[in-house]
Description:
This protein is an alpha+beta fold. Helices cover 27% and strands 28% of the residues. A 6-stranded mixed beta sheet has the order 15-14-16-19-18-17, sandwiched between helices. A 4-stranded antiparallel beta sheet has the order 6-7-11-9. The chain has a 3-stranded antiparallel beta sheet with strand order 10-8-13, covered by helices on one side. The longest helix is centred in the middle third of the chain and has 13 residues. It is elongated.
Amino acid sequence: MKQIRTVDAVGHILCHDITQIVLGVTKDARFRKGHVITEEDIPVLLSLGKDHIYVWENDASKMHEDEAAAVLRDLCQNEYMEASKPKEGKIELKTTIDGVFYVNEERLNALDDLEDISIATLPQHFPVKAGTKLAGMRVIPLIIDRTKMDEAKRVAGTEPLLRVAPYKKWKVGVVTTGTEVFLGRIKDTFTPVLDAKLHKFGLQVDEHRFSDDVKEHIEAAIQELLDAGMDLILCTGGMSVDPDDMTPAAIKGVGAKIETYGAPVLPGAMFLLSYWEKDGRTVPILGLPGCVMFAPATVFDLFLPRLIAGEHLTRRDVRSRGVGGLCMNCKVCHYPRCAFGRS
């Protein structure tokens, strides 16, 4: 940077903030570092006692923070995202759709490990709505060597670091098991909860079947939903280890491959994830534990958004959620804006 007379500063870029103090009114930066000085700014700067100021010396080997932030933006931005204009060297990305947020953690961490680079994002697999802020990025100094930004490009690779997967317009079927519900001894209070959760993602319960606790009857109900073209099937009831709880056996009986029966998540340890496949069609079939009916946030809330965003979840995806898989049972639930499900 260099010092020049303020009256000669039009078109130059400030290297530091300039504070304005008005007694009893304000004490704040009147001009921020990185500001490009205009003709109208000169009288204001002089009134602040700035006869000389420090400006950036334009050098082809250097890059201004706004330009550098734009480089980082281009490394991150993908479809369904919009970027803010640079402000004080920072650019933010927001999503234009509802969906699930994904970040290439390995490449982002490698990029953030470079000197003077800073990119911060939402957590992996975070469910977002249109307008949600996804990431903010900037370089630390006012000016940075172009060679550092070239290195950032090399480390980041050619594919965008961030992605938002939109929710699919799936048909959802529910099988409610339990002789007590089937015979009308008690009211089904589970399905309305599922319907409310699905509505958050633009879905609904499209088909609903009831079954007693006979394995073959549960199988038949699931098969009816498969034949009806459901894209996702949710089975409630009969998910414990009691001898008369036959839902897992019935899911296996229709030919579904069980990825996992059990999850290191509380609430939700008795969660079952499986896939039925035939003629190029794949349908997730979930066995939902009773906690989904009464707990605000459970294992179902962790994995439903990812499934309907088109992700094929595996045993590893479920079994690796132990760290962060304990719900704090807050009096007022703030999920997903909390630690539950984050690692």
